[in-house]
Amino acid sequence: MTAHDISIRPLDPLKDAELIHPWVTDPKAAFWMMQGFKLQDVEREYMAIAANPHHDAFIGSVDGEPAFLMERYDPAKVELVGLYEPLPGDVGMHFLVAPTDTPVHGFTRRVITAVMTELFADPATARVVVEPDVRNAAVHALNEAVGFVPEREIQKPEKKALLSFCTRAQFEAATGAAV
What we know:
- The chain is of the alpha+beta class.
- Helix content is 32%, strand content 27%.
- The chain has helices spanning 13-25, 39-51, 107-120, 137-145, 168-175; strands spanning 6-10, 55-62, 65-73, 90-97, 127-130, 149-155, 160-167.
- Strands 1-2-3-4-5-7-6 form a seven-stranded mixed beta sheet, sandwiched between helices.
- Strand 4 (90-97), helix 3 and strand 5 (127-130) form a beta-alpha-beta unit.
- Helix 1 packs across helix 2.
């Protein structure tokens, strides 16, 4: 496996909406729930995230090419309010790999590992929280590969989700990454 240079930068809603619009509306991104969104809808969605002090969006590049979208949020303030008992140091995460006609084996796992490394780079992050759709078997397997442990199903307004957690120690044990 060759090493890839992965970098992550803040998403600029106005400059990056055109880049991510085909990603979030691709049929493979059905669980992102933006099917049918127009460019302006994507701009509006990410302007709202940019304006929220408890939610951030980022563009990840691999070898200089934009390749994934990452979101970080405070689950005590957005997404999971009232659905579980947050602990200090909990950080919520979403990620989406750009669609491609030439999939690379192991690429998505490298991306989620980079996303988790980025989140744990903040010493205040004790545990990463995710809430993927219960039907998204591919993401459940990826999450498990980097150390996530499912806790229970929860009902969000837009979906039935599998609430899962990953501590720094669980991530390090699963991936061999030292963070």
